[in-house]
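Protein modeling request. Please complete all fields; requests missing the sequence field cannot be processed.
Requester role: graduate student
Desired output: 3D structure, token encoding
Chains: 1
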Amino acid sequence: MDLILIIIMSILLVGYMLFKAGDLFAPWTITTAVWLAIVVMFQFQGDLLYPLGTQFHTSLALWLPIFCASSLLTYYLLPAVAHPEETSRRIPETSGLLFTTLYVISMVITPLYLYKIMQVVMMFDTADMLNNLRLLAVFGDEKYGFLNYSYVLNQVLIVVALWRYPKVPLWQVLTIVAAGMMSAFAIMEKGMLFFLFASLMYILYQKRVIRPRSIFVSVIVVVLVFFLINLARDYTSSEGDSSESMSFLDFFAIYVLSPPAAFERISQDISTQFGSHTFQTVYLFLNRFGGDFEVNTKLQEFVWVPLPTNVYTVFQPFFMDFGYRGVAFFALVYGVLSGWIYRYARNGSGFAKCVYAFAVYVLVLQFYQENVMMSLVNVIQFVFFTWLVTQQQFALRWDWGESGSQQEWRDMDLLDQNEPE
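Delivered output (421 residues):
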């Protein structure tokens, strides 16, 4: 079955390229490339992990064609501009005043958010500080009010600043990235690092600053950096006994290849509550207003495959709630939404370009876990704040030098002249 999937996905990628269906970051290209890479790499993992089984193969056989077909159809059925490859490079217009306002807010609340959390964590053993940070983020019931918005505000600011650079000065971009790292450290969340990397690769590629080979090299470097960080952590925890440190193959198997194997170990939930896993953030919201619903914890249970892991691919919540029909239905939903956003991003919509940067992050990590329905509140907040910064209805502008479409097209001409070989 693996060989059949590899052949089909390889043919699809070649077809996208021959027929020039979108670009490297088209939703159907990302999805096919991600799953092709996972299935191919799984053939070389030896006996580190349990083999892939029928449950994963069936889900992938449903997800891949439905997602790709629906995203392609949505993209091509929507109206298009004359030269999407040019408009996709156009620097988005933003409200400078609103961007600056959110920037100032972030610079104030992000350090406060980290300070409040560290106050709680430092009450316990400082030798286990990093683990305590993560436990507090998952199980803590502390309320930080408006400070909780620091994470999503920094995500919005990162995307907008990367698109607007060099109109947004380098020092401001760097402070935004630093604030994002602070908010990620506060909850020991690797997602911000992946978000920053995915957004950076997408935006630089759209601006024609980098080429596919640069992305490939960057992925290798990022994997090695994460491995070295993990190695250093293991070395410290084992007091210098390197024999207890994780090998690179173990690291790669746990963090990249284990989710599909772990997906084989789950089964449909017998709960009578509709979509208890898929809509867990909705039920959490309803409970805060007096409801009485089952709410699943953010930290999922570990399974052994035989290495320990607690991530189960994008299929997990849909399959546990609705079986294979759920996988097929949400493949359609994801395909339509991603194709729709991608079309308007290619048409030159600044709002769609920024939102699609988030979509790239979601699509790249679909082999790892589901990042939309299970984080629905954060997604809605990201979309709202992005719209607020990129909308042009309110007369709230604070121009970074010359602005307007004439200057933006001039920027594109400068990029053409400096396009790398």
